[in-house]
Amino acid sequence: MTREARGPKEGDFITIKSYKHDGSLHRTWRDTMVLKTSENALIGVNDHTLVTEDDGRRWVTREPAIVYFHKHYWFNIVAMIRDNGVSYYCNLASPYVLDKEALKYIDYDLDVKVFPDGEKRLLDVDEYEDFSQRWHYGPETDRILKANVLTLVDWINHKKGPFSQAYVDLWYQRYQELLRRSNDQ
Q1: What is the DSSP annotation of 85-147?
Q2: DUF402 domain spans which residues (predicted)?
Q3: pTM of the full predicted structure?
Q4: Per-residue pLDDT tens for 164-182?
Q5: Cβ-defined contacts of 144-153 (< 8 Å, 24+)
Q6: Is 174 a catalytic residue?
Q7: CB 90 within 8 A of CB 152
């Protein structure tokens, strides 16, 4: 079995590409370090990662962020590790697919931001309504996304998975170990 068939392993770097419902490229992250892959999930880290927007604008992420993607949930989670605590940016999005080129998903506009003090905000509702009509998301997609918002809020409220400080600490520590190991070689 080739490495591509198995997928990326711990310490490998992948590209992440988000698309819009119409198939247009939305945003690309280069060189996300893979921390763990399983049958249904991928955990990685972005740290000073180059991001390219659909209009060609480029920027670099400012702080380390643990990223969580799942093959069955319609969201992905970015845990940004900042001096004042962990902030979360959660994209309502299709489950990811992974091929030789990149980890890919469709971004469905709605986002949930969680601040270090626990405050939650649902963002971009107007954008979601506009794109939903323009690209004809349809009632089934709308139902799935709204159900996944509820699942996501439940995870946040119960500090499940990526919303647990122990989870963030574990994966950030693993990232630092992998960095040290690569610097020692």
Answers
A1: EEEEEEEEEPPPEE-SS-EEEEEEEEEEEE-TT--EEEE-HHHHHHHHHHHT-HHHHHHHHHH
A2: 22-159
A3: 0.94
A4: 999 999 999 999 999 998 8
A5: 144/74, 145/74, 145/92, 145/108, 145/110, 148/73, 148/74, 148/75, 148/92, 149/75, 149/92, 149/110, 149/112, 149/122, 151/73, 151/75, 152/73, 152/75, 152/90, 152/92, 152/112, 153/112, 153/120
A6: no
A7: yes
